[in-house]
Amino acid sequence: MHSAIYARVSTDEQSLSRQKEECYEYATERLGLAPSELEFYEDKATGTNTEREAYQELVTAVEGENVDTVVALETSRLSRSVGDLATTVEHLLEQETALHVVNRNIALEPGEETDPMQKAFLQLMGVFAEMEASMTRERIKSGIRQAKADGKNVGRPPYGFTTGAKSGDYVPEYPEFEKAQVAIERYDEGDSLRSVALDLDIPRTTVRRIVKDEQKRMMYDYESTA
Asked: Residue 138 pLDDT > 70, yes or no?
């Protein structure tokens, strides 16, 4: 029997180190677990579905009664889908496995003592996350439609987007779209514009536009459902 730390990022360019470090600290200091009791499950894949190698390995271990506790930094690391998140929570508790979400200080323990308010809050967070992503996508689409209706020249799509052939809406273009997401994350964690630009092979002026413009940041704040 062991405890699991689950960490996920969307792309190969992103680092798992911060998630792993914070979860490790929580597990050893807050839960009192020994390092030898911990096993890491790591994915570099979208969180919009559960077809992820390490996630499936974790589920198998839980079902095999080999995991008594799962620790994740935030709910979006487990899933960005409300349905998948709710299913994950239910499945863990049914298998007598506890779930701890570090950045929300949520601890769901199986059995009669499970706090129903925490469980409901966890699922509600997933609802809002999915709703926000949907609203962001719609704002992008409606903004372009309105600009065209007003006769404005919408110009070249922002970095990481292309214009849909039929709809004319901006749609993510990979891998550039994911690079923009990584640039925002790196910059917010304290990396300089220069280092981000060099590491991701993006012009520094483009990185500046991505990370400094709040409207543009909102456009990158979701993952493709593809």
From this structure: no
The burial class, CB within 10 Å (0-12 / 13-18 / 19+), for 71 is buried
The CATH T-level fold of domain 2-126 is Rossmann fold (3.40.50)
| 164-183 pLDDT tens trace | 655 556 778 878 888 888 88
Measured between its terminal Cα atoms, the distance across the chain in Å is 36
Higher pLDDT, 63 or 112: 63
**Are 125 and 75 spatial neighbours (Cβ–Cβ below 8 Å)?**
yes
CATH 3.40.50.1390 residue ranges of the chain are: 2-126
78: left (phi over 0), alpha (psi -120 to 50) or beta: alpha
In the three-class reduction of DSSP (H, G, I as helix; E, B as strand; rest coil), residue 43 is classed as: strand
Q: What local confidence, expressed as pLDDT, does residue 144 receive?
A: 57
Taking phi over 0 as left and psi of -120 to 50 as alpha, with beta for the rest, 122 belongs to alpha
98-119 burial, b at 16+ Cβ within 10 Å, e below that, comes to bbbbbeeebbbbeeeeeeeebb
Distance CA(161)–CA(200), nearest Å, equals 16
Single pTM value for the model: 0.58
Radius of gyration of the chain (CA): 20
Taking a C-beta distance cutoff of 8 angstroms, is the pair 187, 23 a contact? Answer: no
